[in-house]
Structures are given as C-alpha cells and as structure tokens.
Amino acid sequence: MTTNTMRAISQHALGGPEVLTVVELPRPEPGLSEILVKVRAAGLNPTDWKHRAGGLFLGEPPFVLGWDVAGTVEAVGFGVTLFKPGDEVFGMLPYPHGAGAHADYVTGPARAFAHRPAAIDPVQAGALPLAALTAWQALVDTAQVKAGDRVLVHAAAGGVGHLAVQIAKSRGAYVIGTAGAAKHDFLRGIGVDEPVDYRSTDFAEAVRDIDVVLDTIGGEYQLRSLRTLRPGGLLVSILPVPFEGLAEEAERLGVRTAMMLVEADHAGLAAIADLAERGLLRAEIAETFPLEEAAKAHALGDTGRTTGKLVLVN
Asked: What contacts 96, CB < 8 A, 6 or more positions away?
C-alpha cells in the first residue's frame, strides 16, 4: 500500500454486517477550510447500522460510514487557522453526507473539529462527538435545561442516553432514566437520581411533572412521554419522525414537542471538551474493535443491548 492510498470500510450493497468489507481507496486531500485527519479512533452509532441496512440519507452504496472521529491532523487546507499538522483533534463530520470516518484518513471542515482534551485518550474522544453533540443540542440548545429541572432520559444507558444524563447533571437537573433493572447500578453511577425499569413499570404512569423528556427511542414512546410532562414541558426527540397524532395530543395536554437532527458544531464540541476535561462527562466504552473488524462491531450494535459506545481503533 502506498502513502496515496488508505484502508476503508465500504459496502457495495445494503444489508447485514456481512456487506461491510475492507477496501483500498485513494487517500483524500483537504479542500478549502478542511483538515486531513489520520484516524486513531472512530465511534459507531445506531445511525451507522441503520444506514448500512437501509441507506437512509446516503441512498445506494458504495459508501464509507462513520461520523465520529478522533485523530491527528495530517494536513490543513487553504484558509484553516484553528489547527496545524500534529494537533490532536476530535469531531463529528457533517451529518449525514459527511460520513467517512471508518477509514485510515478522513477530511472534514475544520470547524467540525475541536482540540482533543488532554484528560481523555483517543478512544474516549472518538466515542463522544455524535452522541454527546446530540445530547448537548437537545438538552442545552433546544430545551435550555437549568438547575432544578426534572429531566426524563429514555434508554439512559445507551450511547446518547448515558451522555445526556451526565450533561443534564452538569447543569443541576434532577434526572430520571429508563433502562432494564440490570443497568440501574450503572445509571446511579453516572448520576441518575431515579432509575425506572421500563420492563416492569409503565413510565407514563410512574413519572410526573417532567420539564424535559429526551426521546431516544421514537414511535409510541413519544406519545406516552407526553403524559409525564408538566404543563408547558418539552419533549425533544432525536428520531425526528413524529408518531401519529403527536402534535394534536401535545396541544391537548398543553405541552411542546421538538424534532431534531444533530449538526456539526464547533462551539458544542468545545463545551463537550470542557466537560470532559473537568471530569464531568465520560463515555462508557462497551467494546473496541480494530478497523478491519467493523462487521463484528456492527453485529454487536445490531443487538441494541450495548451499554455506552462501540469504537473502531486504528
């Protein structure tokens, strides 16, 4: 392999993890306002397996997945002032069409990145961006969570959920989190004040007077969650397809809804880096895999049962 090529995980068909293959591709060059990053770690997220199986926003293959990235700046494009070669960075490539982190190298807009905090290693940094930005943009930018707010986080042990818990706690919120009973000790360990076992308890009956619900599941969970909100409360869904009748029911109950997709966000990343540096935000690493074993990571992700994040490492 020459220095002009790189390994990447690509697919030529939609389907299960078995469609993922290691290929050799030209190494990209940074364009205007872009940086070239030598990838050291790249997180996986549910959107990766959904795109692998169904194409979603990317359409038909071939394509290289991956939005999370941590690594070393190899080169900078014209006009870049934030970084120089040798800098350690982490970031989220613009969602959805900026995918490509599951490779040896990737390019992206300089302002989709931030300096990696010295307090965290590349695996931590590679696990954080998409999930932490999703939680930050939902709870801080959209819901403006503040001290004393009651926040309900669904799937609180999941990739977005466990980071959302920590972000809400950093802002002084009281956090209720749903997860199976086996994960309740983990939830308490990351700051959940009140774990709820969604298997044995109907959260819509057990939880009340919530200021903000973070919906990470979608479907009828959205509708049921409205009943937990106080008047004027807000449901933020990171799966922005409203369940049938959601708007009408929200209006009837006097509550609000917001549907969001995560965006590349330099300021948000800087805030996340600050929380990580201060020990207030840490990704739980479920497992790491070498790049060439991406299919194994996808198979584990497909189970929907992991706690925290899966990460590919180079």
From this structure: 47, 51, 56, 57, 58, 67
